[in-house]
Amino acid sequence: MPDVTKVVIIGGGPGGYEAALVGAQLGGEVTLVDSDGIGGSAVLTDCVPSKSLIATSNVMSTMEQASGQGLYSPAGDEDLTLTVTTDLAAVNTRVIQLAEAQSGDIAMRLVKEGVRIVRGKARLEGTRAVVATTEFGEERLEADVILVSTGAHPRVLPDAMPDGERILDWTQVYNLTELPEHLIVVGSGVTGAEFANAYDALGVRVTLVSSRDMVLPGEDPDAARVLQDVFERRGITIISRARAVSARREGDGVVVGLEDGREVVGSHVLMAVGSIPNTAGIGLEEAGVELDKRGYVTVDKVSRTSARGVYGAGDCTGVFALASVAAMQGRIAMWHALGDAVPQLRQETIASNIFTAPEIATVGVTQKDIDEGHSTAEVVMMPLASNARAKMQGFTDGFVKLFCLPLTGIIVGGVIVAPTASELIHAVSLAVAQRISVDDFSHAFTVYPSLSGSIAEAARRLHTHGQTATAQLTN
């Protein structure tokens, strides 16, 4: 009888728990060491709670626009939000309960599948063992395979240390029991934009401090421009080309200092200035695991590190800080380590979404790739303002953008800006992953009226005479 492969996983986030499930499925003896709670930050302090908060704020946004659908309060108020009071304590209690319930469900599944969970901190002891420090002492875990999936934590500024009350990082906002009078959000990336959007929808005065010319500097410029216009129209104050260097409490509020000497006064400040990988002090370098200059674990396309038998997954690797990517890295690691058929991680097929209103979803080739000459893809952009379903639902801010190769018409990327972009992007993601041509894509039926109809219309507009035959020959 062959020996059972001993797998030790450090970190119970999406990369860790998905790897544990695959490892158990393939017959490994799997031990998962976790110190922060099963599900990691994705479930407990990031994706699940933040998107739950955003879901609540979306209800308020819908009510605010109800008059455009002919809906009014009994008193005749055009803005239905005037008849609703936000109980932030109740909202955050629900958010935390949802996160804890999701964590519990995942833990139950792991136990059911035969995964042993050890609650404690872990460090590598070479490449064949992990030492777990628990409340009962130290336990040495022999390992044939080790997966490091330790995640990341919020970056802080030396002169803006979070206190959990007025100066907050993105893990602490759920401590609030009352709506801030004036929330300053430092950082206009994905996290900053999402929280600025959510709190504005809940009726909070929001000021967004951005070091760049426009919000979402790393995203599609057309999409960022739409969101910036929406933010400004809704009354969010955006301070562009400004870098925050400090935050201090003063009375019942906070003062945020900018690099140019200006100060911004508010009741609370949320620092959303990036993250730092949890890779220090856990024996990685001593075991021969290479880290880059920022401290991220270096991995290849099958999640291998530079140390034999040691794999990496999730935010600690610096490969797209997305729960879906962490989960896929973890699965790939186990498939590879335990000898199953394994696909390489194809970054060009990764879909992502920003949960603002409207949402912004992307996959594949980007506008930046084209502008900088890295791709020769052709592009078409379809505003949603002419879409019948969009008109029915009362929104005009959004578009569909598709990219395809010039000769074959193969779809290589796309951007969707719409209320449900996170759902709509899957069709484009599938097209990119399977190298579907714009003709084949547009020949599939869509429902009328639907937002997905605009994706098919964009594909039709990318058709050129004779393209189908050429695509068939090249495939």
Describe the structure.
- With 475 residues, the protein is α/β, with parallel strands linked by helices.
- It folds into 3 domains: 6-46 and 93-154 and 276-347, FAD/NAD(P)-binding domain (3-Layer(bba) Sandwich); 167-273, FAD/NAD(P)-binding domain (3-Layer(bba) Sandwich); 358-474, Enolase-like, domain 1, CATH 3.30.390.30.
- It is built from 13 helices and 23 strands.
- The strands form 6 sheets. The protein has a 5-stranded parallel sheet, with helices on one face. The chain has a 5-stranded parallel sheet with strand order 9-16-10-11-12, covered by helices on one side.
- Helix 1 links the parallel strand 1 (6-10) and strand 2.
- Helix 1 packs parallel to helix 7, helix 3 (47-64) crosses helix 4 and helix 3 (47-64) packs across helix 5.
- The model is unreliable at 468-475 (pLDDT under 50).
- It is an enzyme of class 1 (oxidoreductase).
- Its EC number is 1.6.5.2.
- FAD binds at residues 51, 315.
Strands, helices and their partners?
Layout: E1 6-10, H1 14-25, E2 29-34, H2 40-44, H3 47-64, H4 88-112, E3 116-119, E4 121-124, E5 129-134, E6 137-142, E7 145-148, E8 152-154, E9 167-168, E10 182-186, H5 190-201, E11 205-209, H6 221-234, E12 237-239, E13 244-250, E14 253-258, E15 263-266, E16 268-271, E17 275-277, E18 310-312, H7 323-337, E19 351-354, E20 359-364, H8 367-371, E21 378-383, H9 388-393, E22 399-404, E23 411-418, H10 421-434, H11 438-443, H12 452-461, H13 467-474
Parallel strand pairs: 1-2, 1-7, 2-3, 7-18, 9-16, 10-11, 10-16, 11-12
Antiparallel strand pairs: 4-5, 5-6, 8-17, 13-14, 14-15, 19-20, 20-23, 21-22, 22-23
Helix pairs in contact: 1-7, 3-4, 3-5
